[in-house]
Amino acid sequence: MNIAFNSSMPRSGSELLQAILSQHPQIVCSTTSPLLEYFFAAAKNLSTQEASSLENAQELFAGFVKGGLDGYARRSLLMHREKPKAKLYIDKSRGWINYYNSIEAYTGESPPLICMVRDAAEVVASMEKLHLKSNFKADDPMKNVTPAERVDSWLRATPVGLAVRRIVNAIHELNNLEQEGKSRPFFFVRYEDLCNNPEDVLASILKHLKLKSHRFDLDNIEKVPGEEEAAFGSFNGLHAVKQKFEANNAEPKADEILGESLANSVREKCAAYQQAFGYTKQPTE
């Protein structure tokens, strides 16, 4: 399959990364994609009477999944006729890291996966900043609640809490595989590192994807086209991408936006995640 996944934290620069990588002549990137939803919807039908009646239903479904992913990737590449050298399609969806086991099992392949992460308090602060700028509907449940209540809601479920738990679980699985002498082609990228050292980080990503080096134009970034932001709710600019790369986006803002106490509370509630990516210092003996 000519496919890789971008499965990242919310507000961690995944849309920015897709826009930058799409400059590479060998890469076609998606904006937030429904491909995972297609797989998930199909997988639910394995419990139907028709599927249950087949002795080899799982094997047939594996062929369906592999062919579907491959066909989707190939069609995406073919649609970009301006890129005759394109050979890799990168599909963006937050859930791929959670369903990677299933994709691996059904296809017998291990596609590369990029996961962008960011200090959890900065992720939440970015969401709060967007919330305060957004046009609220009359029935918006987040309209008349306190910042602490909003943060608690985001951490308990979607989008932040679920993403954190999935990534922590993925790291746990990777550690178990490493103990067995196995590995997976996962590449974690800290948003802060991308902002502070974009050339080296992008070069490392291309190496991970086994693609030739490329000089990216960070002063002329274009968002991957084809997305209707209204589909993602009341947030304005949720997937906006600035034309010019700004390194100062990595400067800490959580204490200012959330207040130091609330920002530290977020970090404490996401302690395993924070520690895994070096956002909290290891205690010294």
| SS-based class | alpha/beta
Overall body shape: globular
The main pleated sheet reads as: 5 strands, parallel
CATH domain fold name of the largest domain? Rossmann fold
- Summed up, the helix count is 13
Spatial ordering of strands, largest sheet = 2-3-1-4-5
Overall pLDDT metric: 92
Instruction: State the distance separating the first and last CA atoms.
Output: 47 Å
CATH class of the largest domain: Alpha Beta
Order of helices and strands: EHEHHHEHEHHHEHHHHH
In helices, the fraction of residues equals 40-55%
Percent range for β-strand residues = 5-15%
How many strand segments? 5
Kindly give the count of domains: 2
- CATH architecture identity of the largest domain: 3-Layer(aba) Sandwich
- Radius of gyration from the CA trace? 20 Å
Low-confidence stretches: none
Explain how this protein is built:
This protein is about 50% helix and about 10% strand. Strands 2-3-1-4-5 form a 5-stranded parallel β-sheet, sandwiched between helices. The protein is α/β, with parallel strands linked by helices and about 280 residues long. It has 2 domains: about 1-120 and about 185-250, Rossmann fold (3-Layer(aba) Sandwich); about 120-185 and about 250-285, no CATH class.
